Amino acid sequence: MVTDLGPVIRTRPKLAVWKFASCDGCQLTLLDCEDELLGLTERVRIDHFLEMTPAEGADRERAQLDGRGPYDLSLVEGSITTAEDAERIQHVRRISRYLVTIGACATAGGVQALRNFADVDDFLAAVYARPEYIATLETSTPISAHVPVDFELRGCPIDRRQLIEVITAYLAGRRPQISHHSVCFECKRRGTTCITVAHGTPCLGPVTHAGCGAICPAYGRGCYGCFGPSSKPNLRSMVAQLRHDGMSERDVQRVFRTFNAASPEYAPVPDLAAEERQGPPA
Amino acid sequence: MSTDADVHASQPPASDGLVMGKDGMAALVDVLIRRGFTVVGPTARDGAIVLAELRSADELPYGWGVELEAGRYRLRERPDGAAFANAAGPQSWKSFLHPVRVREWSADRVEGELVFTADQDTPPRYAFLGVRPCDLRAIAIQDRVLTGGAYRDSGYEGRRSGALLIVVECTEPGATCFCVSMGTGPAAGPGYDLVMTEVVDEDGHRFWMRSGSQEGAEILAELPTRPADPETRETARAGVTAAADRMGRTMPEADLRELMAGTLDAPRWDDVAGRCLTCGNCTMVCPTCFCTTTEDVTDLTGDHAERWRLWDSCFDLDFSQLHGGPVRASSRSRYRQWMTHKLGTWYDQFGSSGCVGCGRCIVWCPVGIDITEEAAALHDWTQSGTSASASAPEPP
């Protein structure tokens, strides 16, 4: 079957990578795309990416945190934890045509959102000798709490193949093929025997967003939810099962208080864990 | 329960069959490999009896049994050294006949034109060693679904038409098995090339073998066997008969199709929805669930595209995603869709039940939801008298 598509018109869209409160792991995933990196640079102009541009010399201006833009595609890593960043994300949004958040920090607030459940001043006093030098917000919030986001990529860190898929889909003008179902789908698709059923290992797979390829269960370790909640997770049933599989009330609370701690879906977990105090049946 | 109900009674073999010692299993695998088959069978791995390509009979799970419960699977050593005294594992043969991931075609942009290429890989000739009677029926059900209608899955047809089915009758049902209720076992129904019944007693570890096809008979003729003695035949038959009496689960004594159609508003659906994680495990371990999704992928150059077909599940919200949202947004509606299709509307669509009673969905549900328990609860509701008065539909 042959279809005439006419002449191919190609421009190189401009790509920018932005960092907010984060560890850099997600944006470094772009550099980890070793096999695809040269092909990628043929299709997009990587215009703003501090991790791969020199901070000195002729490109100094480009290396400045603000960037000038406009950019066709902005990849945003990190959460909003300072007043300056709350302003800067507005600037990034204004100069970006299509804005994709990459990773748990940008999408859910990250592990630094643990402050949302405590008094940030207590943390500052515990960590810093001179807390008065630190200017920070009381909460860590996802990018979507501040500006409209076109697509959110999950994970801590994000999956390399999913990043390439999002960029490729953008270039083709189609929707990214990113599933929102559970990690169980990925275990079954790769032929991993369920570690909860066969070994009694507590696992968050049934309520966790797919995308990692079910790495942890393939190595006998329970999923700890680094991709955040799947679509409409049944946390009441999951929490009861985790307790059945031997997790204490505190363990249950803690396993949901990691990289996606501030995901709204997880909000009922402490109450649900407390309801299950009776412990595992004999 | 249906016209299938007579299958669990042992079928009279065409002949008295042959007896093969345990050592003959090595010869069987060798003969299959020499004949060009890719031999797939059970082997103990990662704490379960999984299906994998076998290079030698030594890889069979000799001495491994299983302990099954809802949401629980454990390997247990068996002192008798039997290879097939274990019920269904985490996979079924659909992993090979209806694989998780199939590329259907690819397309390339060549000098401004789009050229499509259908995927035409030659499938291996599979020899499935150790197909259980319930799974033999499951294969027949998938045959009907995927090749028995107006739209035939040519890829499935290619993999299936070359497959040799070596059935092992069940003598050790699990606590989650209910093949007798579904009329699919523990004796083998039709469709096998070879059937074996494993016997381990003071007279040794041996297999009672019968052929069901010309090719099966030819393979059997190449194996080290002797005519079947009456004692082996009787012991084998008695083992299968005893298995029928030791089913761990039963379906309620009712017409399941009518039960499903008559309980769509039962409050039990809300109860099970409270437990269901909608994780999709039941559908993926089910040997008859066949649903797939399609993914079109492009590469970075934009000059190459591929269409892939992947297993999907009616428990996935995206499965019924239309404009405006999913058709089955609640877990209640998704669980009900799965169970009523499996036990009820499957008849309307394909002329049989979609359930073979293997019990996999019970074992591999992380929270141990039990389809026989759910069916019993629905049946109880119809008997309780509350169903007739419950004319107001439940909230969706």
Automatic annotation (TrEMBL), chain A:
The keyword Endoplasmic reticulum does not apply. Keywords: Oxidoreductase. Gene3D superfamilies: NADH:ubiquinone oxidoreductase-like, 20kDa subunit. SUPFAM superfamilies: HydA/Nqo6-like. It holds the Pfam family Oxidored_q6. PANTHER family: COENZYME F420-REDUCING HYDROGENASE, GAMMA SUBUNIT (PTHR42845), F420-NON-REDUCING HYDROGENASE VHU SUBUNIT G (PTHR42845:SF2). This is Oxidoreductase. It comes from Streptomyces monashensis.
UniProtKB/TrEMBL annotation, chain B:
It holds the Pfam family Fer4_22. Keywords: Iron, Iron-sulfur, Metal-binding. Residues 265-296, 346-374 form the 4Fe-4S ferredoxin-type domain. PROSITE patterns: 4FE4S_FER_1, 4FE4S_FER_2. GO terms for molecular function: iron-sulfur cluster binding; metal ion binding. InterPro entries: 4Fe4S_Fe-S-bd, 4Fe4S_Fe_S_CS. It comes from the Bacteria. This is 4Fe-4S ferredoxin.
